Amino acid sequence: MDSVKVGIVGCGTVGSGVVKILLQNRDIIEERIGKKIELSMVADRDVEKVKKLGVPEKFIVNDGFKVVESEVDIVVELIGGTTVAKDIVKSALENGKHVVSANKALFASYGEELFSAAFENGVSIRFEASVGGGIPVIKALNEGLVANRIEKILGIINGTANFILTEMTTRGISFEEALKIAGEKGYAEADPSLDVDGIDAAHKIAILASIAYGGWVTINDVYVKGIRDITPLDIDFAHEFGYRIKLLAVAKPDNGKVEVRVHPAMLPEDHILSSVDGVFNACLIEGDFVGPTLYYGMGAGQRPTASAVVADIADIACGRGSSVPVSLLKRGAKIPVKRPGEFVSSFYIRFTAVDKPGVLAKISSILGKYNISIKMALQKSIALNGGVPVVMTTHEASFKTVKVAIAEIDKLDVIVKPTFLCMIEE
Amino acid sequence: MDSVKVGIVGCGTVGSGVVKILLQNRDIIEERIGKKIELSMVADRDVEKVKKLGVPEKFIVNDGFKVVESEVDIVVELIGGTTVAKDIVKSALENGKHVVSANKALFASYGEELFSAAFENGVSIRFEASVGGGIPVIKALNEGLVANRIEKILGIINGTANFILTEMTTRGISFEEALKIAGEKGYAEADPSLDVDGIDAAHKIAILASIAYGGWVTINDVYVKGIRDITPLDIDFAHEFGYRIKLLAVAKPDNGKVEVRVHPAMLPEDHILSSVDGVFNACLIEGDFVGPTLYYGMGAGQRPTASAVVADIADIACGRGSSVPVSLLKRGAKIPVKRPGEFVSSFYIRFTAVDKPGVLAKISSILGKYNISIKMALQKSIALNGGVPVVMTTHEASFKTVKVAIAEIDKLDVIVKPTFLCMIEE
């Protein structure tokens, strides 16, 4: 039986999970793939920690570059970040090593450079764990749906944000309270901004869009808005209109461009993604032949993420190549990305206005002037920051026009607070 | 760019879909995989039909064995059945051709023989389309979750049966009425028994169980019960107890054996599979590291099924091997399968009894004698075939014991109709 030598760089949460799998399930994995997997080297600053996992001391080093320069066939980069991790990955590739990584930020920033280096050196990069944790969604998109033009990707791909919105929805609590619970449960970092500001989801959708549309989409191409300004009030209004609020990642092609965005969105309550709650992730991928398909599971955590990393190791051991289309391996593949001003959507808009006659007329006359067509409107006598909420949903309209109209409305003396705007995904 | 020559045997619904994909999406597929796909030969008795799809006449033959004996690299078997299809596949393999197929019956009956022939001849078989239509669930199980011991597979993998049960549930109609609608919509065949009697789902779960547990499970190893005796009354009672009735395919390991079954089951209404409605399919796969994962999409139909067939062609073109574990390729891999008498489950039981005092006491004393513990009981004064329904759910009990107890109860003179029994999957 052939064997493949694996070196792990970074033995934190995910790295320890990979070691655990290789200790517990190696027999069944080797039987399935018909190759031996040898864990030859583990690099971590904390040698004692690695020893406690059951890795013999002779296999442990304290410098990731020692792994890169060793005899391993596959370098598993699990240190995260885009600085040292990039150097490790780049030199691994240049040393003719295959790379497995869970690093979404790295590939959403330097995908083109790194895959191009892999191509030039005749080695593979796989990074299933970078999106959707243990769910094999990159494999599904790149291999399973290879026959399809991808019409749309809708993802709930940040478990922390989804947990917070689920808590807010089911318990009627504020963002701050829900964030606190997420922190207590270990779902939110001390600095939660990567998660709640949508940046982590933006990294992930950039990767999925790159694979689906065959050109590198980077984090800078993604329109990003987080969930900090979602209030229980908007969650309630959403419910009255038949919607759930989710932090949604969207990628879809339109007229030779790709639209890639991450933001809170209202989804119909009977939409399959509306029932994805808590820390779970799900990705809805629609192809022109296959129709809608959904992939669901744990989007984070030691064990699910390690499951995806080991699947990548097995795939490389079986010679299954990189986890992006061959067309992406060559430098320079680019696709035009839409600017936010080009987005078209239906919207939920909440104005905060003084409780006087004529307010609705003033607002709707400005919307009318911009040809923004109102679908439903609701005015409630709830005191809110010195005003009352006036809530509307619109038919499809240009994001740019809606923002211009709202800016004009917000200058009206009947408006007492900046207006809240949220896209609706039907 | 390397190229791969493909020959299709059988150009019916799925075959025509494959031709359509290769005509419409070949550009994008070839870009993604970096290989050319040449459709070199199509065999069908109806040559005119194939010409109408846009296949040049010189590529069309009327005998599948001509494809097998030609220069093609991959034979795509899409004639179905287990007689001629088996001969075609066997001789293709012996002629050194890779095989792609959508034929669940073939592999659930002759998987061991055919994969062993593939192994001996150094070629691959892929059959993604055989389970879950366009959903890449075999790929997920065999490759994406390779690092996991599979703790459970729960599948809704027959779209026709699921459509019928969904219609019965949402519209309160009988099995016969729902079957008629399924026929009118083209979801049910003239002879619907493969679908409604659970045989198609049994073929599919046999294949999934074989992959998950590394030993061949055949259709004869699967306990199968269909949905013909499901009534609107049981659907209503299920709802009162908080359950939905689905035709469920189950595979799970227990104590060195594998339990593989297909039957109507009650699922809690908030179970993720309970919301899989209509012709949609979904498969919940739980691994020891990844936790629960779900794969959802169109389980049948020309376009989704063809999507899976073409993905297999692409995988073979990329040298990705067979879609079963290497351990399955060798003849003789067997795993012990549980007999139905060994199943343990909680149950829903509906007795039809005369409307007299003491009936419940008689029934429950027999259940008590067999140590079957009642969880909930409900007696209603609805006239039903000369009796009233007495409905119960039980705690976990042996299937064998429950059947013995029911046989004894059914002999009581207060029981007027044979008792209805349904497993509950919590």
UniProtKB/TrEMBL annotation, chains A, B:
Residue sites binding L-homoserine per the record: E189
**Which EC class heads this enzyme's classification?**
oxidoreductase
Its recorded reaction(s) are: L-homoserine + NADP(+) = L-aspartate 4-semialdehyde + NADPH + H(+)
Give the matching InterPro entries: ACT-like_dom_sf, ACT_dom, Asp/hSer_DH_NAD-bd, HDH, HDH_cat, HDH_CS, NAD(P)-bd_dom_sf
Pathway note: Amino-acid biosynthesis; L-methionine biosynthesis via de novo pathway; L-homoserine from L-aspartate: step 3/3; Amino-acid biosynthesis; L-threonine biosynthesis; L-threonine from L-aspartate: step 3/5
Question: Where on this chain does NADP(+) bind?
Answer: V9, G10, C11, G12, T13, V14, G15, S16
GO BP term, pick one? methionine biosynthetic process
The EC designation for this entry is: 1.1.1.3
Q: Where does NADPH bind?
A: K104
Lineage: superkingdom:
Bacteria
Keywords for this protein: Amino-acid biosynthesis, Methionine biosynthesis, NADP, Oxidoreductase, Threonine biosynthesis
Q: Which PANTHER family match?
A: HOMOSERINE DEHYDROGENASE (PTHR43331)
This chain belongs to which protein, by name?
Homoserine dehydrogenase
From which organism does this entry originate? Desulfurobacterium indicum
